[in-house]
């Protein structure tokens, strides 16, 4: 995709049947978990990776491991996103692939604190808007670009016990759908990575709901990353690492009352534990 890289060497395309060799890639939230696994998988596939995380030491460690370049900092706020993209372009020459992986999992419902709701909106939704606002002009001019949003299956279904997470992940999915519907004919490839449970610190913080709903079928971050690369290579919009997700999504869409009754039964079972 990229026509040039900062050191003058060529870069490979990530179009149909994506070959990631030489691709200039940015991965946010890449200090651990799915983000770190994405950085490792992309580097192993030959991509040149910029590793971003709020945890500067974690970002530098993953960058050192993958031969990438660490750009620690915020990947959600206006200033942080702009600084990340500027630094990545300085390093890569052009950004071919942006993996918007950073996210926050806030528990609770209407009782969740206003600042918890605000943080979820900023990181899980507006970070995507701010990144694409800066990425799209170059991508549309070149007629090529690739955007991977780590959405979570909560964006397709819901996550009991966590209204801010569920609502904002629905928003992230809706924005990814809008991007694809609007710019697909101009060369933009958009992907929504929607795993269920993944063995990360985020899963550890989901409490009883996560242990009942997610932990039994949780996969390793490397498995989610491998599915992400496979799905991008196949130009799939929805990338579903868990085989049962598609059926659950179809049931939600076609028999919503039955699906909601089933989810409510699960909620009652968790409350009775």
UniProtKB/TrEMBL annotation:
- Please give the family membership noted in the entry: Belongs to the short-chain dehydrogenases/reductases (SDR) family.
To which species is this protein native?
Kitasatospora phosalacinea
Could you tell me which Pfam families the record lists for this protein? Answer: adh_short (PF00106)
List the protein's name: SDR family oxidoreductase
Superkingdom of this protein's organism: Bacteria
Q: What InterPro entries has UniProt attached to this entry?
A: NAD(P)-bd_dom_sf, Sc_DH/Rdtase_CS, SDR_fam
Q: Which PROSITE patterns match?
A: ADH_SHORT
- In short, the EC number is 1.-.-.-
Provide the organism lineage as a comma list.
Bacteria, Bacillati, Actinomycetota, Actinomycetes, Kitasatosporales
């Amino acid at each position: 995709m990229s026509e040039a890289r900062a050191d003058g060497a060529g870069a490979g395309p990530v179009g149909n049947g994506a070959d990631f060799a030489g691709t200039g890639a940015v991965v946010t939230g890449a200090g651990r978990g799915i983000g770190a696994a994405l950085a490792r998988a992309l580097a192993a596939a030959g991509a040149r990776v910029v590793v971003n995380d709020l945890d500067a030491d974690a970002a530098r460690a993953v960058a050192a491991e993958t031969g990438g370049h660490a750009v620690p900092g915020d990947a959600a706020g206006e200033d942080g996103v702009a600084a990340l993209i500027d630094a990545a372009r300085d390093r890569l020459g052009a950004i071919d692939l942006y993996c918007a992986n950073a996210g926050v999992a806030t528990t609770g419902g209407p009782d969740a604190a206003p600042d918890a709701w605000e943080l979820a909106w900023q990181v899980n939704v507006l970070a995507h808007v701010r990144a694409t606002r800066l990425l799209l002009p170059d991508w549309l001019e070149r007629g090529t670009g690739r955007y991977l949003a780590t959405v979570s299956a909560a964006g397709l279904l819901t996550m009991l016990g966590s209204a801010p997470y569920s609502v904002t992940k629905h928003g992230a999915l809706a924005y990814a759908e809008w991007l694809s519907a609007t710019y697909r004919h101009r060369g933009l490839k958009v992907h929504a990575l929607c795993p269920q449970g993944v063995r990360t610190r985020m899963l550890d913080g989901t409490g009883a709901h996560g242990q009942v709903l997610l932990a039994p079928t949780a996969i390793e971050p490397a498995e989610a990353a491998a599915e992400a690369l496979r799905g991008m290579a196949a130009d799939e919009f929805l990338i579903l690492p868990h085989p049962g997700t598609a059926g659950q999504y179809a049931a939600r869409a076609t028999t919503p009352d039955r699906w909601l009754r089933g989810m409510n039964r699960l909620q009652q079972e968790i409350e009775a534990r």
